[in-house]
């Protein structure tokens, strides 16, 4: 399952979210992907995401329009991996 | 005394007696035919005289006992057609309805609009509607657009008002509070009121402003920030007094049975928990219309909350016999900032007690992340995002907006015509949208003309040098119906059946939005996509397609009885066995694309849901889905005998066993008696999959 | 496990929690007023995975209510596995039980957040009502386990006219009081589609009478609730 960060141009919190997600993906050995919601709005909508940054794991949106701490993100992912 | 005149004598005489449309008896004079033909159709004098002579001979030959002007006109029309003068016939013909249909309307009424009771006012309205609808199709719209509507490629809403009124409007109460009220727009025909000096009058002005506006509009009339703008008038009052005022307002709007030929005003109010940040620093309009820079709305937080609570309690109590108030529809805005305010949870539980009992509240979700701080909701589902100039108006105390006209695209039809070819489908989609655009552009010219002619006096009132109604600031709404059936016909799967079908559906609506945005840039006007309030359209279009594309048409309902319908806009089929979380996820994805309005329904079955947990549910919908606007719909059975209201659609009253019951449910965006629904909608009611919340 | 169906969202089946309700098929009792009698036997054989799958993506819920039939009639190992998986998803679990399986009950309690246990009649009449000779003894055992567990629970009686009256309620509440039961629920009987056809014509008691019965029970149990078109504490 992939860890996906939804971003868009000029989104102030996005770099922060991306950095955290990348780190977590590496630690847990997950595939990592970024989706620009302006370029691929429909994929974002199918995740029920319309605000950035948002983070999804597999099909599940974990955080919407907010940046979690590394620990929060990890915890949510581990819950789903069980 | 007709017998005196229609006897055998007359028709054999040289001079026949004619019953004219001016209610007079006159002698037949063929010169009158000549004159009217030339004046009304512009044909030559020679042909006109030729026709008149022929008509006279025909009438004499027929030895009629009864001659009237309309009859002569019918004969003239035949003569015009015999000469292939079709255009002249169009100009010369009469509008109106067959005697049989008039009798039906007088004796039975019609069922197309769920709000219409059968009473003398609505009978007049229906007869007038008939003529105005015909006029729109015959005279106002060019043939190819009228035909596109009649064929069912598009559906032009509120045709009866097409040549007289724009669709819907959201008002700014501050303007009326500051300037007083001229209900006729000019003050020439009615009394003129100055700015309200006390709360009772302010409440009455608010109600009357909507009723007055309704005479100039076809659709819904809304008041945004209702409890905020009125908060200064509540200062110093006890809660009991405030509740009395709330009750007064709600009763006014649910009892003034006057608008549009005997209906209540199609009204709604937006209720805020306290004074939102965006209003806090605005100078308040105070009793007497006084504005002081030093006193802002932020100073009336407590009053705004008390008034919001009072309104909600009135909704919870229902009317004298315990029925819910259907109008004004209450919209509750969910803002992030509210969650930090003390008492918000408690307030929302109260709101959800109303949900559990009647289902009346609507929720506007500002937490989904794509709607701006202020949106306007009214009518069935119109949700508008303001632009910069709107914010100027907002600061200046007269923010106003609305929709000029809605035209709906029949999506399934496009699928039947494109035979599985994607390219063709998108081509036809754009083509149909262009038809809708043409219709709306004609509407714009008509409304401008009416304003100039002075027949929309409420709209031409002066606001700081501009008319109250600004045609180019309101939106042009393009709606759609039956995405689900389009997908089934085109991809073989319904909206909820696969991720691919869902995706294709999103592509269709996104394309519509993109086109609308291109047009907005091109014209400087606001073109938007809206989830149509498809009360009659979903039934009419399904019926037409069933006839035209039999074998290919995918419709819901009962084909045998003709109680068929298309699924509204981009909703999941109402009877689909899909869990609520899935339904909301699928439907929510469309909401950010429908920049002109959206609505989701959560149908509650026969139940007494728990209000605290309903509030939890509301929070989840607000934070986890993209649903921008929704309501819980509770079906209700009201007993006419013992006045007991119970949940669910029941054949007899669970309290007293009487079968003299009335059913209530939401049609498209508002509650009404089920007996007023059309066949398609009635069938849909029984097909709805309900979430068993209790 | 024998699957009987799912209600994807409920606001009334788990106090304080939005939940999904999972119905299991199979029950040792044959109470004449059973509402879910289509679940007394039969059902579809499913694995734990399939059940988890049915609730996993439901972002609207905070809990799951296991009911039936009788959920504790299912295989214990599978039940424990299911409960662990639901916990892992962060979901609270409520079990509706008839109390016939005290041993299983004691083994699952650690993984459960709320139990609703039926106490259908006085112990003397249990066998006659349920069709099981050892039912009273086992139900009392279950009650004892619950009372000593520290877990949140309620005991409930469906008030069926012709079967339950004021005297019964008084006796039941006395038994409950001996065990220290703190929350007792009286549920209104509903005659639609019940097991015994004769009961389909029996009209439920009106709310007023249920409240009256509630006041009788209240002498012995601190918190009494009447469930009838919503809930009302007596």
Could you give a quick summary of the protein structure above?
Chain B has 694 residues and is of the alpha/beta class.
What brief labels describe this structure?
heterotrimer, B: 694 residues, alpha/beta, Anaerobic Ribonucleotide-triphosphate Reductase Large Chain, 3 domains, eleven-stranded mixed β-sheet, four-stranded antiparallel β-sheet, 26 helices, 45% helix, globular, C: 234 residues, TIM Barrel, ten-stranded mixed β-sheet, 7 helices, 10 strands, 32% helix
Descriptive notes:
The complex is a heterotrimer of chains A (82), B (694) and C (234). Chain A has three helices and four strands. Chain A is of the alpha+beta class and 82 residues long. Chain A has one domain (2-81): Glutaredoxin, CATH 3.40.30.10. Chain A has a four-stranded mixed sheet. In chain B, strand 1 (17-19) and strand 2 (25-27) form a beta hairpin. Helix content of chain B is 45%, strand content 16%. Chain C starts with a strand and ends with a strand. The mean pLDDT of chain C is 93. In chain C, strand 5 (92-97), helix 3 and strand 6 (114-118) form a beta-alpha-beta unit. Chain C has one domain (2-233): TIM Barrel, CATH 3.20.20.
Helix count of chain B, per DSSP? 26
How many structural units, i.e. domains of chain B? Answer: 3
Radius of gyration of chain A: 11 Å
What does the overall shape of chain B look like? globular
Characterize the largest beta sheet of chain A: strand count, sense, and whether it forms a barrel: 4 strands, mixed
Subunit organisation of the chains: heterotrimer
Low-confidence stretches of chain B: 1-12
CATH 4th-level superfamily of chain A: Glutaredoxin
CATH topology category name of chain A: Glutaredoxin
In terms of structural class, how would the helical and strand content of chain B be classed?
Answer: alpha/beta
Helix % of chain A is 40-55%
Work out the number of β strands of chain A. Answer: 4
What is the typical, i.e. mean, pLDDT of chain A? 93
Number of helices of chain A: 3
How do the helices and strands line up, and which of them pair or pack?
The complex is a heterotrimer of chains A (82), B (694) and C (234).
Chain A: E1 2-7, H1 14-28, E2 31-36, H2 41-46, E3 54-57, E4 60-63, H3 70-81
Parallel strand pairs in A: 1-2
Antiparallel strand pairs in A: 1-3, 3-4
Chain B: H1 2-5, H2 8-12, E1 17-19, E2 25-27, H3 30-41, H4 45-62, H5 69-82, H6 86-92, H7 99-108, H8 120-140, H9 143-151, E3 154-156, E4 168-171, H10 173-179, E5 181-182, E6 192-193, H11 199-214, E7 221-223, H12 226-230, H13 239-255, H14 259-262, E8 267-271, H15 277-280, E9 283-286, E10 290-296, H16 301-317, E11 329-334, H17 344-357, E12 362-365, E13 376-378, E14 382-384, H18 388-396, E15 401-410, H19 411-418, H20 422-453, E16 462-463, E17 466-467, E18 475-481, H21 483-491, H22 499-523, E19 526-531, H23 537-548, E20 556-558, E21 563-565, H24 580-588, E22 600-604, H25 611-624, E23 629-634, E24 636-639, E25 645-647, E26 661-666, E27 671-673, H26 679-687
Parallel strand pairs in B: 4-7, 7-8, 8-11, 11-12, 15-18, 18-19, 22-23
Antiparallel strand pairs in B: 1-2, 3-15, 4-15, 5-6, 9-10, 12-23, 13-14, 16-17, 20-21, 24-25, 24-26, 26-27
Helix pairs in contact in B: 3-4, 4-5, 5-6, 11-13, 13-16, 16-17, 17-25, 19-20, 19-21, 20-22, 21-22
Chain C: E1 2-10, E2 19-24, E3 44-45, H1 48-56, E4 63-67, H2 76-88, E5 92-97, H3 102-108, E6 114-118, H4 126-130, H5 135-149, E7 152-159, H6 166-179, E8 183-188, H7 207-218, E9 223-227, E10 231-233
Helix pairs in contact in C: 1-2, 3-5, 6-7
């Amino acid at each position: 399952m992939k860890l996906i960060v939804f971003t868009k141009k000029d989104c102030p919190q996005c770099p922060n979210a991306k950095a955290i997600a990348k780190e977590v993906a590496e630690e847990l050995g997950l595939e990592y992907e970024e989706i620009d919601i302006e370029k691929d709005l429909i994929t974002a909508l199918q995740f029920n995401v319309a605000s950035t940054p948002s983070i999804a794991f597999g099909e599940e949106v974990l955080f919407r329009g907010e940046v979690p701490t590394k620990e929060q993100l990890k915890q949510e992912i581990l819950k789903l991996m069980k | 005394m007709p017998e005196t005149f229609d006897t055998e004598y007359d028709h054999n005489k040289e001079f026949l007696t004619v019953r004219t449309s001016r209610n007079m008896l006159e002698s037949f004079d063929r010169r009158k035919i000549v004159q009217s033909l030339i004046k009304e159709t512009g044909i030559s004098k020679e042909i006109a005289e030729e026709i008149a002579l022929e008509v006279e001979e025909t009438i004499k030959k027929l030895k009629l006992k009864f001659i009237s002007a309309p009859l002569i006109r019918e004969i003239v029309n035949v003569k015009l057609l015999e000469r292939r003068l079709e255009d002249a016939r169009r100009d010369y013909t009469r509008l109106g309805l067959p005697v049989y249909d008039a009798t039906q309307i007088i004796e039975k009424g019609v069922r197309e609009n769920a709000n219409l009771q059968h009473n003398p006012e609505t009978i007049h309205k229906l007869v007038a509607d008939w003529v105005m609808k015909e006029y729109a199709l015959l005279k106002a719209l060019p043939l190819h657009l009228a035909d596109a509507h009649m064929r069912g490629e598009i559906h032009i809403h509120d045709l009866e008002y097409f040549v007289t009124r724009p669709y819907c409007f959201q008002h700014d109460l501050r303007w009326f509070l500051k300037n007083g009220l001229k209900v006729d727009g000019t003050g020439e025909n009615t009394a003129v009121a100055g700015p309200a000096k006390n709360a009772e009058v302010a409440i009455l002005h608010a109600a009357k402003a909507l009723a007055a506006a309704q005479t100039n509009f076809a659709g819904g009339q809304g008041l945004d920030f209702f409890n905020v703008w009125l908060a200064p008038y509540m200062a110093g009052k006890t809660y009991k007094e405030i509740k009395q005022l709330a009750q007064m307002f709600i009763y006014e709007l649910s009892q003034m049975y006057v608008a549009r030929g005997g209906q209540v005003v199609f009204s709604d109010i937006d209720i805020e928990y306290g004074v939102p940040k965006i209003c806090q620093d605005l100078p308040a309009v105070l009793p007497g219309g006084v504005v002081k820079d030093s006193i802002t709305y932020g100073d009336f937080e407590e009053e705004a909350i008390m008034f919001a609570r009072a309104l909600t309690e009135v909704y919870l109590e229902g009317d004298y016999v315990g029925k819910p108030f259907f109008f004004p529809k209450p919209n509750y805005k969910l803002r992030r900032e509210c969650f930090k305010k003390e008492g918000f949870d408690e307030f929302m539980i109260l709101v959800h007690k109303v949900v559990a009992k009647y289902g009346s509240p609507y929720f506007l979700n500002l937490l989904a992340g794509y709607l701006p701080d202020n949106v306007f909701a009214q009518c069935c589902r119109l949700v508008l995002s303001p632009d910069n100039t709107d914010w100027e108006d907002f600061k200046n105390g007269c923010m106003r907006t609305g929709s000029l006209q809605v035209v709906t695209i029949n999506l399934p039809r496009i699928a039947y015509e494109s035979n599985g070819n994607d390219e063709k489908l998108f081509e036809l989609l754009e083509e149909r949208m262009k038809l809708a655009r043409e219709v709306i552009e004609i509407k714009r010219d008509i409304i401008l003309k009416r304003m100039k002619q002075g027949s929309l006096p409420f709209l031409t009132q002066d606001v700081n040098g501009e008319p109250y109604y600004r045609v180019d600031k309101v939106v042009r709404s393009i709606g759609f119906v039956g995405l689900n059936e389009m997908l089934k016909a085109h991809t073989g799967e319904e909206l909820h059946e696969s991720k691919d079908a869902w995706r294709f559906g999103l592509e269709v609506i996104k394309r519509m939005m993109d086109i609308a945005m291109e047009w907005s840039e091109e014209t400087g006007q606001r073109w938007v996509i809206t989830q149509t309030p498809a009360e009659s359209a979903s039934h009419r279009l399904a019926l037409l397609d069933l006839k035209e594309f039999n074998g290919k048409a995918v419709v819901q309902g009962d084909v045998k009885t003709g109680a068929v319908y298309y699924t509204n806009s981009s909703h999941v089929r109402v009877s689909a066995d899909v869990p609520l979380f899935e339904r909301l996820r699928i439907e929510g994805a469309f909401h950010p694309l429908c920049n002109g309005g959206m609505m989701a329904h959560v149908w509650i079955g026969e139940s007494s849901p728990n209000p605290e947990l309903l509030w939890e549910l509301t929070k989840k919908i607000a934070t986890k889905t993209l649903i921008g606007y929704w309501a819980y719909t509770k079906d209700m059975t009201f007993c006419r005998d013992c006045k007991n209201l119970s949940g669910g659609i029941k054949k007899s009253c669970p309290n007293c066993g009487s079968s003299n019951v009335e059913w209530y449910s939401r049609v498209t965006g508002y509650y009404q008696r089920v007996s007023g629904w059309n066949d398609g909608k009635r069938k849909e009611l029984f097909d709805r999959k309900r979430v068993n919340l209790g | 496990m024998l699957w009987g169906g799912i209600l994807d969202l409920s606001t009334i089946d788990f106090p304080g929690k939005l939940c999904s309700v999972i119905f299991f098929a199979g029950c040792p009792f044959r109470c004449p007023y059973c509402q879910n009698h289509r679940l007394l036997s039969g059902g579809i054989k499913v694995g734990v995975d399939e059940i988890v799958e049915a609730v996993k993506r439901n972002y609207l819920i905070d809990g799951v209510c296991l009911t039936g039939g009788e959920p504790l009639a299912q295989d214990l190992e599978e039940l424990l596995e299911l409960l662990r998986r639901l916990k892992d998803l962060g979901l609270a679990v409520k079990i509706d039980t008839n109390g016939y399986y005290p041993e299983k009950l004691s083994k699952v309690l650690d993984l459960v957040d709320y139990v609703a246990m039926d106490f259908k009649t006085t112990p003397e009449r249990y066998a006659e009502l349920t069709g099981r000779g050892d039912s009273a003894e086992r139900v009392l055992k279950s009650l004892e386990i619950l009372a000593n567990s520290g877990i949140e629970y309620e005991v409930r009686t469906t008030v069926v006219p012709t079967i339950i009256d004021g005297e019964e309620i008084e006796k039941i509440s006395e038994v409950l009081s001996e065990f220290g039961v703190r929350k007792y629920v009286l549920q209104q009987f509903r005659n639609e589609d019940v097991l015994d056809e004769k009961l389909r014509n029996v009209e439920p008691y009106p709310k007023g009478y249920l409240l009256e019965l509630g006041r009788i029970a209240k002498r012995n149990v601190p918190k009494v609730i009447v469930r009838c078109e919503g809930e009302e504490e007596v």
